[in-house]
Fold this sequence. Notes:
With 85 residues, the chain is mainly alpha-helical. The protein has helices at 2-12, 21-43, 54-83. Helix 1 runs antiparallel to helix 2, helix 1 packs parallel to helix 3 (54-83) and helix 2 (21-43) packs antiparallel against helix 3. The protein is elongated and about 50 Å long.
Amino acid sequence: MAFIFFNVITISTAKLVRSPMKELSYILGAIGISFVFVMFVSDAGIVDLFGPAGHGGTERMIVYQPITWLASVGGYLMASGAENK
C-alpha cells in the first residue's frame, strides 16, 4: 500500500505547484507507478519482467522516485518563500 500511495501522492500534489515542479511530479510519479505494476506482475509469476535489476532493484525504483520528489518539493517550497519577500 505504501508503494502505491507514495507515488499517487507524488502525482496528486502536482496540482499545487508550478512548472517545472509540476512536470517533475508527474514524471516521477508515473515512473514509480509503472514499477509498482512491474512488481505486481512479476510477483504474480512473470519473473523475467524484473530484468537484470531483480526484485530488490525494482523495489528501489519504486521508492527512489518519491524520495527524489520529496527533496525536490522541499527545495521548491523553500525557494518559493524567498520570492514572496
